[in-house]
Design brief:
CATH superfamily: MFS general substrate transporter like domains
Structural class: mainly alpha
Strand content: under 5%
Largest sheet: none
Number of helices: 22
Shape: globular
Distance between the termini: 33 Å
Length: about 425
C-alpha cells in the first residue's frame, strides 16, 4: 500500500536523529542481546487479523438489540422512556470506561487490554439472554459495552503503533470490518431469531459466538509488550521527540470531541430507533432490520475509501460537509415519506454515518506521536460519548410524549448543522502538540 506521510513525523536525517540511551533499539536495528526482536511480518499479520475480528464485534451488541427492541421491551415490560435509557447505555459506557483505556494500556499493554475487551464482550452477550428483568439485562449489556469501550479507544492506538506508515489504510480496514459487523447484526438478527423459534433471547445470544472467536488472535499477543516497545512512537525507554500534550488546552482536541459526540449521537439514535421508525410507518419487522443493515453496510466500502482520502487532504472539512448534507437529506426524507422512500433514506443515512471512520482518521492525524494519539483518542471519544448520551434518551421521551416520530426526526436533522460546523473546525491542518 502507498505511504501516507501526512500522518507521521518527517523522518529525521542522520544529523537530526536524536541520541538514544544505550541498549535501546528501534524497529530497524538488530536486536541487542536479551532485547525483543523487531515486529515480524507474521506478527503484523496476526495484529491485522485481530483488528478485523475485534472490529466485527464492536457493534453487534447494539444493532442486534435495535432490531429486537420491541420484543425485548415488551417481554421485560419497558416503557418508551426506559427503552430510551437502554439505547443511551452504549455511549454512557463508552464515555465512562473508555477514559480508563490509556492507563490500562500503559500497565498491561494495548493488546492485552483489547483481548480482555473481547472476553468481556463475549461474557456480556452470553449472559444477556438469561436476564429476567431490566436491571439484569442492563448489567449484562454494560459488561459487553465495557469491553467495546476500551477496544474503541485502543484501535487507533494499535494502528499507529504497529502500522505507522499505513494509518489511513489500516483505519479503513478495521472501520470497514466494524461497518460489516454492524450491518450483519442488523440484517441477520430477526431472521435468525425466527429460525430459532422466535425467542429474542436466542437471537441476541448467538452473537456471543462471534466474540469468542475474536479473543483468539489476541492471545499470542499478550506477551508482545516487549515487541511493542520496539515500534516507532511506542513506549520504548527513550526520550520522545515531542512532549506529551495537555489535551484539554487544545481547541482541536475539543473540536474533535464535540464532532465525535455529534456523529455518535446520530449513529446511536439510528442504531437504536431507526427500525422502530420504519415499523411504525408500516414496514414489516424483517424489512426494517434489513433497512438498518443497508444503512450500516454503506460503511463497508466507504469506511475504507474515506480514511484514505482524508489522509491525502490537508483539511478534511469538505468531507465533513458532504457527509452532513447526506444526513440532513436523509432525515428530511424520513420526516416526509418514511415508508415510500425508505431505501433511499437508509442509503443516505448510511453515507452520513461514515463520519465515524472519518473522526477516527482525524484522531490519528491531529497528533504527531503515539503518546499523543493515545491521549487524544481517549479524550475525544470520552468527551464525544458523554455528549451523545442524552440523544437516544431524548428521542424516546419525545416519541412517547408526542405520540409520533415528527419531533424526534426534526431533532436528528437539526443536529447535522452543528456537526458540519464543528467537524470543519476539527478538520483543519494542525496538531494538538502545536496548540499545547
Amino acid at each position: 500500500m502507498p505511504d501516507e506521510p501526512k500522518t507521521l513525523d518527517p523522518a529525521p536525517t542522520p544529523a537530526q536523529t536524536p541520541a538514544r540511551p544505550a541498549g535501546t533499539t528501534t524497529a530497524g536495528d538488530p536486536p541487542a542481546p536479551g532485547r525483543p526482536a523487531p515486529p515480524r511480518r507474521g506478527l503484523l499479520g496476526l495484529v491485522a487479523v485481530g483488528l478485523v475480528l475485534a472490529a466485527l464485534n464492536l457493534r453487534p451488541a447494539i444493532t442486534s438489540l435495535g432490531a429486537l427492541l420491541e420484543e425485548v421491551s415488551a417481554d421485560l415490560h419497558m416503557s418508551g422512556s426506559v427503552a430510551g435509557v437502554l439505547t443511551s447505555v452504549p455511549p454512557l459506557c463508552f464515555a465512562v470506561f473508555g477514559i480508563t483505556a490509556p492507563r490500562l494500556a500503559r500497565r498491561f499493554g494495548p493488546a492485552a487490554v483489547v483481548c480482555a475487551g473481547m472476553a468481556a464482550i463475549f461474557t456480556g452477550l452470553l449472559l444477556r439472554p438469561f436476564a429476567t428483568g431490566t436491571a439484569a439485562f442492563l448489567a449484562a449489556s454494560a459488561l459487553a459495552l465495557m469491553g467495546i469501550a476500551v477496544s474503541n479507544v485502543l484501535m487507533p492506538v494499535i494502528v499507529k503503533r504497529y502500522f505507522p506508515d499505513r494509518v489511513g489504510s489500516m483505519t479503513g480496514l478495521y472501520s470497514m470490518a466494524l461497518a460489516l459487523g454492524t450491518s450483519l447484526a442488523a440484517a441477520a438478527t430477526v431472521p435468525m431469531t425466527d429460525a430459532l423459534g422466535g425467542d429474542w433471547r436466542l437471537g441476541l445470544g448467538v452473537w456471543a459466538a462471534l466474540a469468542a472467536v475474536a479473543v483468539l488472535p489476541w492471545l499470542p499477543l499478550l506477551r508482545d509488550r516487549g515487541t511493542d516497545t520496539a515500534l516507532p512512537a511506542a513506549t520504548a525507554p527513550r526520550r520522545p521527540r515531542h512532549p506529551a500534550p495537555r489535551i484539554t488546552r487544545s481547541r482541536t482536541a475539543w473540536a474533535l470531541g464535540v464532532f465525535f459526540g455529534l456523529q455518535a449521537t446520530g449513529a446511536y439514535i439510528t442504531m437504536g430507533w431507526m427500525p422502530q421508525i420504519f415499523r411504525d410507518a408500516g414496514v414489516p419487522a424483517a424489512t426494517a432490520g434489513v433497512l438498518l443493515a443497508v444503512t450500516m453496510v454503506m460503511g463497508v466500502p466507504l469506511a475504507f475509501v474515506i480514511p484514505r482520502l482524508a489522509t491525502r487532504m490537508k483539511n478534511q472539512g469538505p468531507i465533513v460537509v458532504a457527509l452532513g448534507l447526506c444526513g440532513l437529506t436523509g432525515y428530511t426524507g424520513l420526516f416526509l415519506a418514511p415508508a415510500s422512500g425508505a431505501w433511499v433514506w437508509a442509503v443516505l443515512l448510511g453515507v452520513s454515518n461514515c463520519s465515524f471512520p472519518l473522526a477516527l482518521t482525524m484522531i490519528g492525524m491531529r497528533s504527531r506521536t503515539g503518546a499523543g494519539v493515545v491521549r487524544l483518542s481517549a479524550f475525544a471519544q470520552s468527551v464525544g460519548y458523554l455528549i451523545s448520551i442524552p440523544g437516544p434518551l431524548l428521542v424516546g421521551v419525545l416519541y412517547q410524549h408526542s405520540g409520533g416520530w415528527g419531533l424526534p426526526i426534526v431533532l436528528m436533522g437539526g443536529l447535522m448543522v452543528p456537526q458540519m460546523i464543528i467537524g470543519t473546525l476539527a478538520g483543519r491542518d494542525r496538531t494538538v502538540e502545536d496548540e499545547c
